[in-house]
Amino acid sequence: MKSRRDRSCDTAFVLSLCLVFLASIGLTLVSVTQGKNKALITSDGKDYYVWARSILLDHDIDFSNDYQLLPGSGSNPAASVVWSPAGHAVNKYPVGMAILETPGLLVGHVVARYVVHSSTNGVTAPYQIAVAWSLLILYFVSFLLLYRAMLDLGVTRMWAFGFCLTALLGTNLIHYVAKEMTMVHAAGVAVFNILLFLSVRWFGEHRRIHVAHGILLGALVGLLFLVRNTNILILPVLAAVVWTRRRVYVSEVLPALFGAAAIAALQPVSLWFLWGRLRFSTYYNESFTSGISGVINALGSARHGLLVYSPWYSVLLLIAAYGAFRLPQARRVCIAAIASFLLMAIVNGTWWCWWFGYSFGNRAFIETLPSLSLAAALSVSRLSIGRKVTIALMVVMLAVVVLNLYLWIGFLLQAYPLGGDHTIAQAYLWPFFHSPASLINRLSQ
């Protein structure tokens, strides 16, 4: 039975998430009423969305009209569409995000047709809002599940609260939850959070999971892959968590493999229809050409260097490294989390566009946050740290949240270049590079 203190901590966490959720809802309303283009499905998010819009509303995969309805689409502006041998406008992004956006699109369609009687072209305000809000609900519910999974794995409530909330507010994740929610990064975090929660619950001691549960877990793994293919690099953490729970039987693995293969197969199937031939990679003219210099730059350069603009990742890595060496109870999860991060660093850094375009920090690492947060939270929970160290870590958490929100405000105001063509000083000291009148003018826009 929960103590009063435990109930208070749970309530405080839920209330904190609710406040951030409401603030995110408010930001979407400001965007659709005061923004320049009044759109919530923006940037690369448009290219993910057209899969759902074209299939559900047009009943085809001819994206040319979609790109005209969504001008300035990230990879395929209407003026420079690339055509596949099958005669279709090429979309280089996988279909996972479209699957997650489908409920919002359907709700938006009902609202547009039967409630406000507006255009049902899939891009008007009812669709924009419904898709954005449905994703927001998914993201915040997933953080509740991450919190519960941490508790089930032995993390103390105080640290589960602290590490979950700092991952959300103290890193670049907040931008892709509250502002650019139709990008894939928060979606990858959400699917992983759900996977982690279900795995912890179903792989309990002295329990065998049902075939249906195994298929569902596998399907979520396939969906994680479809959202962003490189998300497979964070699966070692999930395996380490399950391994710490109990032995896994072949009879449990086979249904999961079936579910994963069935969902992941949507990628080559969709590419077959798009290209008219068998393909496995969605990208057709991009590759890994940056080498080791790209890895170093992705982590430490002035141009969206992850550890430069989101220092909380460094704290998580240090705590996880300590847990890997000194805490046998947390070792497997810590090693897996660090390994996943390093693999992601190699893949992201060697990609030709290691800075990942217009990005708040380096967005390509966001999907590693739940696993790093879990590893760090497990480590701290198993340490016998005194009151002074506890207070110091809590102060660090508060400081990184304040710093991150400060940098984010500058990013939202475009007080420094979004593409990363700025110095570290320009980002960290952005108020000093603009007059008060200029900042007020940017705020009004």
Question: What tags apply to this protein structure?
Answer:
mainly alpha; 445 residues; globular; 20 helices
- Alpha carbon gap, first and last residue: 51 Å
What is the averaged pLDDT score? 92
Order of helices and strands: HHHHHHHHHHHHHHHHHHHH
Q: Give me the number of helical elements.
A: 20
Percent of residues in helices:
55-70%
Structural class: mainly alpha
- Beta-strand residue fraction: under 5%
Low-confidence stretches: 73-79
Largest sheet: none
Instruction: Compute the CA-based radius of gyration.
Output: 22 Å
The best one-word shape is: globular
Secondary structure: elements and pairs:
Elements lengths: L3 H31 L10 H14 L5 H6 L26 H20 L9 H28 L4 H13 L3 H6 L6 H18 L8 H17 L7 H11 L4 H15 L1 H10 L15 H10 L5 H4 L2 H15 L4 H20 L18 H13 L5 H26 L11 H5 L7 H9 L1
Describe the structure.
This protein has 445 residues and is an all-alpha fold. The protein has 20 helices and no strands. It has helices at residues 4-34, 45-58, 64-69, 96-115, 125-152, 157-169, 173-178, 185-202, 211-227, 235-245, 250-264, 266-275, 291-300, 306-309, 312-326, 331-350, 369-381, 387-412, 424-428, 436-444. It is globular and about 60 Å long. The termini are far apart. The model is unreliable at 73-79 (pLDDT under 50).
